[in-house]
Design goal:
The chain is mostly helical and 150 residues long. It has one domain (2-148): Ferritin, CATH 1.20.1260. The protein has seven helices and no strands. It starts with a helix and ends with a helix.
């Protein structure tokens, strides 16, 4: 029973960040800027992020069960906060250049989290690989949008 409650707490924390990020919707500004041809349709983002946030929650929980609160979870929390900050910078402030710099830091934080998780619980590290791939794509998309709209 305790495992269920602790997993629920990880989901709550992760989806609280998702909720923060979701308040910064693309809106008219995003609709009006130039986007590259490889931009996915808007409907793709919500289901993709839902799956990725769920994987982040489970990965964090798995590591917490083995190692408790320490370096690995500090990195996990850092990448989670950086994740939420990107939406604020890009959609909230309409600053694709600043968001691009931030997504590079986010990418490094995710990669570092994966590296540390590998030593604690390999399955948890592997759960974060699709997230890193998606953020890599998001970084390319962010860079293209910044370039097209300078």
């Amino acid at each position: 029973m305790a495992a269920g409650w602790s997993l629920a707490c990880f989901f709550l924390l992760t989806f609280a960040v998702a909720g923060f990020a979701a308040q910064f919707e693309p809106g008219l500004w995003y609709a009006s800027i130039q986007k590259p041809g490889f931009t996915p349709p808007n409907w793709v983002f919500a289901p993709a992020w839902t799956v990725l946030y769920a994987a982040m929650a489970v990965a964090g929980w798995m590591v917490w069960r083995v190692a408790g609160w320490g370096r690995a979870l500090a990195l996990w929390i850092a990448q989670l906060l950086l994740n939420g900050a990107w939406s604020w910078l890009f959609f909230g402030l309409h600053e694709p250049g600043l968001a691009l710099a931030e997504i590079l830091v986010l990418w490094i934080a995710i990669a570092a989290t994966i590296a540390v998780f590998l030593h604690v619980r390999r399955a948890a590290a592997f759960l974060l690989v699709p997230y890193l791939a998606w953020v890599s794509f998001a970084g390319l998309l962010n860079a293209a949008i910044w370039h097209l709209n300078r």
